[in-house]
Design a protein that fits this description.
342 residues, alpha/beta, five-stranded mixed beta sheet, 16 strands, 30% helix, 22% strand, globular
Length: 342
Protein backbone atom coordinates (compact mmCIF):
# COMPACT_ATOMS: atom_id res chain seq x y z
CA UNK A 1 0.00 0.00 0.00
CA UNK A 2 1.45 3.41 -0.87
CA UNK A 3 2.08 5.54 2.16
CA UNK A 4 0.58 8.85 1.12
CA UNK A 5 -2.39 10.12 -0.86
CA UNK A 6 -1.08 8.11 -3.80
CA UNK A 7 -2.90 5.13 -2.29
CA UNK A 8 -6.15 6.52 -3.69
CA UNK A 9 -5.22 6.01 -7.35
CA UNK A 10 -4.09 2.50 -6.53
CA UNK A 11 -7.43 1.67 -4.94
CA UNK A 12 -9.55 3.37 -7.56
CA UNK A 13 -7.56 1.51 -10.20
CA UNK A 14 -9.46 -1.62 -9.18
CA UNK A 15 -12.95 -0.26 -9.73
CA UNK A 16 -15.27 -1.67 -12.35
CA UNK A 17 -17.07 0.74 -14.64
CA UNK A 18 -20.37 -0.22 -13.05
CA UNK A 19 -19.07 0.66 -9.61
CA UNK A 20 -17.87 4.06 -10.76
CA UNK A 21 -21.27 4.84 -12.23
CA UNK A 22 -23.03 3.66 -9.09
CA UNK A 23 -20.89 5.77 -6.80
CA UNK A 24 -20.69 9.05 -8.70
CA UNK A 25 -23.80 10.26 -6.97
CA UNK A 26 -24.92 13.47 -5.37
CA UNK A 27 -24.24 11.99 -1.96
CA UNK A 28 -20.55 11.84 -2.76
CA UNK A 29 -20.12 14.83 -5.02
CA UNK A 30 -20.22 17.46 -2.31
CA UNK A 31 -18.60 20.85 -2.72
CA UNK A 32 -15.84 21.94 -0.37
CA UNK A 33 -14.23 18.54 -0.02
CA UNK A 34 -16.48 16.86 2.55
CA UNK A 35 -20.03 15.73 3.14
CA UNK A 36 -22.15 14.14 5.82
CA UNK A 37 -23.20 10.70 4.63
CA UNK A 38 -26.31 8.85 5.65
CA UNK A 39 -25.56 5.95 7.99
CA UNK A 40 -28.93 4.26 8.39
CA UNK A 41 -27.61 0.70 8.35
CA UNK A 42 -28.55 -0.49 11.79
CA UNK A 43 -29.51 0.73 15.22
CA UNK A 44 -26.45 0.54 17.45
CA UNK A 45 -28.53 1.74 20.43
CA UNK A 46 -30.58 -1.46 20.20
CA UNK A 47 -27.44 -3.57 20.13
CA UNK A 48 -27.95 -4.61 16.51
CA UNK A 49 -25.75 -3.55 13.59
CA UNK A 50 -26.51 -4.61 10.03
CA UNK A 51 -23.43 -4.93 7.85
CA UNK A 52 -23.38 -5.22 4.08
CA UNK A 53 -26.74 -3.48 3.80
CA UNK A 54 -27.53 -1.63 0.55
CA UNK A 55 -24.28 -2.96 -0.96
CA UNK A 56 -25.82 -3.89 -4.32
CA UNK A 57 -24.47 -7.42 -4.08
CA UNK A 58 -20.96 -6.50 -2.95
CA UNK A 59 -21.56 -8.12 0.44
CA UNK A 60 -23.79 -10.64 2.17
CA UNK A 61 -26.12 -8.68 4.44
CA UNK A 62 -25.64 -9.80 8.03
CA UNK A 63 -27.13 -8.43 11.26
CA UNK A 64 -24.89 -8.70 14.31
CA UNK A 65 -25.65 -8.20 17.97
CA UNK A 66 -23.16 -5.71 19.38
CA UNK A 67 -23.80 -3.84 22.63
CA UNK A 68 -21.75 -1.33 24.59
CA UNK A 69 -18.95 -2.79 26.69
CA UNK A 70 -18.71 -0.50 29.71
CA UNK A 71 -15.15 -1.51 30.60
CA UNK A 72 -14.01 -0.38 27.15
CA UNK A 73 -16.14 2.76 26.80
CA UNK A 74 -14.76 3.87 30.17
CA UNK A 75 -11.37 4.28 28.44
CA UNK A 76 -12.71 6.92 26.02
CA UNK A 77 -11.44 10.52 26.21
CA UNK A 78 -13.87 12.59 28.29
CA UNK A 79 -14.85 14.90 25.42
CA UNK A 80 -15.75 12.04 23.09
CA UNK A 81 -17.68 10.17 25.77
CA UNK A 82 -19.58 13.34 26.68
CA UNK A 83 -20.53 13.97 23.04
CA UNK A 84 -22.12 10.54 22.75
CA UNK A 85 -20.90 10.34 19.16
CA UNK A 86 -18.01 8.87 17.24
CA UNK A 87 -17.33 11.01 14.18
CA UNK A 88 -15.88 8.65 11.59
CA UNK A 89 -13.99 10.01 8.59
CA UNK A 90 -13.84 8.46 5.12
CA UNK A 91 -11.70 9.75 2.26
CA UNK A 92 -13.42 8.65 -0.95
CA UNK A 93 -14.86 11.80 -2.53
CA UNK A 94 -15.67 12.26 -5.38
CA UNK A 95 -16.07 8.53 -6.20
CA UNK A 96 -16.28 5.44 -4.02
CA UNK A 97 -14.17 2.31 -3.97
CA UNK A 98 -16.09 -0.96 -3.64
CA UNK A 99 -15.99 -2.94 -1.46
CA UNK A 100 -14.32 -0.50 0.92
CA UNK A 101 -16.42 2.66 0.81
CA UNK A 102 -19.16 3.62 -1.62
CA UNK A 103 -22.70 4.99 -1.78
CA UNK A 104 -25.29 2.24 -1.45
CA UNK A 105 -28.08 1.26 -3.76
CA UNK A 106 -30.42 3.84 -2.15
CA UNK A 107 -28.10 6.52 -3.60
CA UNK A 108 -27.49 8.16 -0.22
CA UNK A 109 -26.16 5.71 2.38
CA UNK A 110 -22.41 5.27 2.76
CA UNK A 111 -21.73 1.54 2.83
CA UNK A 112 -18.67 -0.67 2.50
CA UNK A 113 -16.39 -2.67 4.75
CA UNK A 114 -14.76 0.46 6.20
CA UNK A 115 -18.05 2.12 7.08
CA UNK A 116 -19.24 -1.09 8.73
CA UNK A 117 -16.19 -1.67 10.94
CA UNK A 118 -16.45 1.94 12.10
CA UNK A 119 -20.07 1.39 13.09
CA UNK A 120 -19.27 -1.88 14.86
CA UNK A 121 -16.56 -0.16 16.89
CA UNK A 122 -18.91 2.71 17.74
CA UNK A 123 -21.47 0.17 19.04
CA UNK A 124 -18.91 -1.42 21.39
CA UNK A 125 -17.99 2.06 22.62
CA UNK A 126 -21.64 2.95 23.20
CA UNK A 127 -21.45 5.87 20.76
CA UNK A 128 -23.63 6.98 17.88
CA UNK A 129 -21.64 6.62 14.62
CA UNK A 130 -21.59 9.77 12.49
CA UNK A 131 -19.95 9.33 9.08
CA UNK A 132 -18.33 12.21 7.22
CA UNK A 133 -16.96 11.78 3.74
CA UNK A 134 -14.01 13.77 2.39
CA UNK A 135 -11.49 13.85 -0.39
CA UNK A 136 -8.46 11.79 0.61
CA UNK A 137 -6.32 14.81 1.55
CA UNK A 138 -9.14 16.54 3.41
CA UNK A 139 -9.76 13.45 5.52
CA UNK A 140 -6.44 14.10 7.26
CA UNK A 141 -7.22 17.81 7.52
CA UNK A 142 -10.44 16.78 9.26
CA UNK A 143 -8.54 14.59 11.73
CA UNK A 144 -5.99 17.36 12.33
CA UNK A 145 -8.69 19.95 12.99
CA UNK A 146 -10.78 17.77 15.28
CA UNK A 147 -13.67 17.65 12.83
CA UNK A 148 -13.15 13.88 12.73
CA UNK A 149 -12.50 11.65 15.73
CA UNK A 150 -11.14 8.65 13.83
CA UNK A 151 -10.57 7.70 10.21
CA UNK A 152 -11.68 4.31 8.90
CA UNK A 153 -10.66 4.60 5.26
CA UNK A 154 -8.19 1.89 4.28
CA UNK A 155 -5.38 3.92 5.83
CA UNK A 156 -2.01 2.17 5.93
CA UNK A 157 0.01 2.29 9.14
CA UNK A 158 3.31 4.03 8.32
CA UNK A 159 6.15 5.34 10.44
CA UNK A 160 5.88 8.71 8.71
CA UNK A 161 2.21 9.06 9.64
CA UNK A 162 3.01 8.24 13.26
CA UNK A 163 4.56 11.69 13.52
CA UNK A 164 1.02 13.11 13.53
CA UNK A 165 -1.36 10.20 14.16
CA UNK A 166 -2.00 7.19 16.39
CA UNK A 167 -3.22 3.88 15.05
CA UNK A 168 -5.34 0.88 15.94
CA UNK A 169 -4.79 -1.86 13.36
CA UNK A 170 -7.70 -3.98 12.14
CA UNK A 171 -6.90 -5.51 8.74
CA UNK A 172 -3.96 -6.72 6.71
CA UNK A 173 -2.88 -4.50 3.82
CA UNK A 174 -2.58 -7.01 1.00
CA UNK A 175 -2.14 -7.12 -2.74
CA UNK A 176 -3.44 -10.04 -4.79
CA UNK A 177 -3.21 -11.82 -8.12
CA UNK A 178 -6.46 -12.20 -10.04
CA UNK A 179 -6.62 -15.00 -12.62
CA UNK A 180 -9.33 -16.83 -14.52
CA UNK A 181 -10.91 -19.44 -12.27
CA UNK A 182 -10.00 -22.05 -14.89
CA UNK A 183 -6.31 -21.19 -14.46
CA UNK A 184 -4.65 -23.53 -11.90
CA UNK A 185 -1.63 -21.21 -11.41
CA UNK A 186 -0.88 -20.09 -7.84
CA UNK A 187 1.53 -17.43 -6.60
CA UNK A 188 2.16 -19.18 -3.24
CA UNK A 189 4.17 -16.21 -1.96
CA UNK A 190 7.10 -17.07 -4.23
CA UNK A 191 8.18 -14.61 -6.93
CA UNK A 192 9.86 -17.45 -8.84
CA UNK A 193 6.40 -18.77 -9.70
CA UNK A 194 6.02 -15.68 -11.92
CA UNK A 195 8.67 -16.93 -14.34
CA UNK A 196 7.25 -17.17 -17.85
CA UNK A 197 4.07 -15.29 -16.90
CA UNK A 198 2.51 -12.12 -18.29
CA UNK A 199 1.09 -9.91 -15.55
CA UNK A 200 -0.81 -6.63 -15.74
CA UNK A 201 -0.24 -3.97 -13.10
CA UNK A 202 -1.25 -0.32 -12.69
CA UNK A 203 1.45 2.09 -13.82
CA UNK A 204 3.07 4.13 -11.02
CA UNK A 205 1.54 2.04 -8.24
CA UNK A 206 3.04 0.35 -5.20
CA UNK A 207 2.33 -3.05 -6.73
CA UNK A 208 4.18 -2.08 -9.91
CA UNK A 209 7.25 -1.24 -7.80
CA UNK A 210 7.10 -4.69 -6.17
CA UNK A 211 6.54 -6.43 -9.51
CA UNK A 212 9.48 -4.61 -11.12
CA UNK A 213 11.74 -5.80 -8.28
CA UNK A 214 10.65 -9.38 -8.94
CA UNK A 215 11.18 -8.92 -12.67
CA UNK A 216 14.73 -7.75 -11.99
CA UNK A 217 15.44 -10.78 -9.77
CA UNK A 218 14.06 -13.19 -12.35
CA UNK A 219 16.10 -11.58 -15.10
CA UNK A 220 19.27 -12.10 -13.03
CA UNK A 221 18.30 -15.79 -12.89
CA UNK A 222 17.84 -15.98 -16.66
CA UNK A 223 14.02 -16.04 -16.38
CA UNK A 224 11.41 -13.76 -17.90
CA UNK A 225 8.43 -11.95 -16.40
CA UNK A 226 6.43 -9.84 -18.86
CA UNK A 227 4.68 -6.79 -17.39
CA UNK A 228 1.83 -5.05 -19.19
CA UNK A 229 -0.22 -1.90 -18.59
CA UNK A 230 -3.69 -1.03 -19.84
CA UNK A 231 -5.52 2.32 -19.92
CA UNK A 232 -8.50 1.28 -17.79
CA UNK A 233 -10.02 -1.49 -15.74
CA UNK A 234 -12.30 -2.74 -18.51
CA UNK A 235 -9.29 -3.27 -20.78
CA UNK A 236 -7.55 -5.21 -18.00
CA UNK A 237 -10.44 -7.61 -17.57
CA UNK A 238 -10.85 -8.04 -21.31
CA UNK A 239 -7.17 -8.99 -21.55
CA UNK A 240 -7.58 -11.44 -18.69
CA UNK A 241 -10.66 -13.02 -20.26
CA UNK A 242 -8.98 -13.36 -23.66
CA UNK A 243 -5.79 -14.89 -22.28
CA UNK A 244 -3.66 -11.92 -23.32
CA UNK A 245 -2.40 -11.78 -19.74
CA UNK A 246 -2.08 -14.52 -17.13
CA UNK A 247 -2.88 -12.36 -14.11
CA UNK A 248 -3.78 -8.92 -12.82
CA UNK A 249 -1.84 -7.71 -9.75
CA UNK A 250 -3.72 -5.19 -7.63
CA UNK A 251 -5.26 -4.36 -4.22
CA UNK A 252 -6.78 -7.42 -2.59
CA UNK A 253 -10.11 -5.75 -1.64
CA UNK A 254 -10.92 -4.56 -5.15
CA UNK A 255 -9.89 -7.91 -6.61
CA UNK A 256 -12.10 -9.70 -4.06
CA UNK A 257 -14.96 -7.43 -5.13
CA UNK A 258 -14.40 -8.09 -8.83
CA UNK A 259 -14.36 -11.84 -8.20
CA UNK A 260 -17.87 -11.57 -6.73
CA UNK A 261 -19.00 -9.62 -9.80
CA UNK A 262 -17.70 -12.23 -12.25
CA UNK A 263 -18.98 -15.25 -10.30
CA UNK A 264 -21.93 -15.88 -12.62
CA UNK A 265 -20.21 -14.74 -15.82
CA UNK A 266 -18.94 -17.09 -18.57
CA UNK A 267 -15.37 -16.51 -17.35
CA UNK A 268 -15.31 -16.13 -13.57
CA UNK A 269 -12.07 -15.09 -11.89
CA UNK A 270 -10.30 -16.22 -8.73
CA UNK A 271 -7.64 -15.10 -6.26
CA UNK A 272 -4.32 -16.85 -6.97
CA UNK A 273 -2.53 -15.55 -3.89
CA UNK A 274 -1.82 -12.46 -1.80
CA UNK A 275 1.27 -10.49 -0.84
CA UNK A 276 1.84 -7.80 1.78
CA UNK A 277 1.52 -4.26 0.48
CA UNK A 278 4.59 -3.43 2.59
CA UNK A 279 6.76 -5.94 0.75
CA UNK A 280 8.34 -9.20 1.90
CA UNK A 281 9.94 -7.80 5.07
CA UNK A 282 6.79 -6.57 6.83
CA UNK A 283 3.08 -7.35 6.86
CA UNK A 284 1.35 -4.12 5.95
CA UNK A 285 -1.57 -3.14 8.18
CA UNK A 286 -4.69 -1.04 7.74
CA UNK A 287 -5.52 0.97 10.84
CA UNK A 288 -8.08 3.27 12.42
CA UNK A 289 -6.38 6.66 12.52
CA UNK A 290 -6.77 9.39 15.15
CA UNK A 291 -4.86 12.54 16.00
CA UNK A 292 -1.70 11.80 17.97
CA UNK A 293 -2.33 12.25 21.68
CA UNK A 294 -6.12 12.03 21.28
CA UNK A 295 -6.33 8.96 23.50
CA UNK A 296 -8.59 7.18 21.02
CA UNK A 297 -6.28 4.49 19.65
CA UNK A 298 -6.36 2.34 22.79
CA UNK A 299 -10.16 2.16 23.30
CA UNK A 300 -10.67 1.66 19.55
CA UNK A 301 -8.14 -1.21 19.57
CA UNK A 302 -9.86 -2.68 22.64
CA UNK A 303 -13.21 -2.49 20.84
CA UNK A 304 -11.76 -4.26 17.79
CA UNK A 305 -10.26 -6.97 19.98
CA UNK A 306 -13.65 -7.46 21.63
CA UNK A 307 -15.17 -7.93 18.17
CA UNK A 308 -12.40 -10.41 17.28
CA UNK A 309 -12.82 -12.42 20.47
CA UNK A 310 -16.61 -12.59 20.15
CA UNK A 311 -16.79 -13.54 16.48
CA UNK A 312 -18.38 -10.39 15.03
CA UNK A 313 -15.08 -9.38 13.41
CA UNK A 314 -14.85 -12.62 11.41
CA UNK A 315 -18.47 -12.27 10.31
CA UNK A 316 -17.82 -8.68 9.18
CA UNK A 317 -14.87 -9.76 7.02
CA UNK A 318 -16.71 -12.78 5.63
CA UNK A 319 -19.70 -10.63 4.66
CA UNK A 320 -17.40 -8.46 2.54
CA UNK A 321 -15.35 -11.41 1.17
CA UNK A 322 -12.20 -10.14 2.91
CA UNK A 323 -11.46 -13.00 5.29
CA UNK A 324 -7.97 -13.31 3.78
CA UNK A 325 -7.09 -9.95 5.37
CA UNK A 326 -7.93 -10.92 8.96
CA UNK A 327 -5.62 -10.05 11.85
CA UNK A 328 -5.54 -12.07 15.07
CA UNK A 329 -5.25 -8.98 17.25
CA UNK A 330 -5.67 -5.21 16.97
CA UNK A 331 -2.52 -3.38 18.00
CA UNK A 332 -1.86 0.19 19.03
CA UNK A 333 0.82 1.78 16.85
CA UNK A 334 2.32 -1.47 15.53
CA UNK A 335 5.43 -1.31 13.29
CA UNK A 336 4.46 0.47 10.09
CA UNK A 337 5.86 0.97 6.62
CA UNK A 338 9.42 2.25 7.24
CA UNK A 339 10.43 5.81 6.42
CA UNK A 340 12.90 4.56 3.81
CA UNK A 341 10.09 2.72 2.00
CA UNK A 342 7.68 5.65 1.88
Amino acid sequence: MPTHSSSRPRLLRGLTAATVLATLTAGLAACGGDSDAATGTGDAASGRVTIGRLSNGAATETTLKVSEVKSISAELPADVKKSGKLVIGHGVLPSGSAPLEFIGEDQKTLTGSEADIGRLVAAVLGLEPVSRNFTWDNLFVGIDSGKVDVGFSNITDTEERKRKYEFASYRQDNLAFEVLKSNPWKFDGNYENLAGRTVEVGSGTNQERILLEWQKKLKSEGKKLTIKHYPDNNAVHLALSSGEIDAHFGPNPTISYHITQTATSPKPTANAGTFSGAGDSLQGLIAATAKKGSGLAEPVAAAINYLIENGQYAKWLAAWHLSNEAVTKAEVNPPGLPLDNA
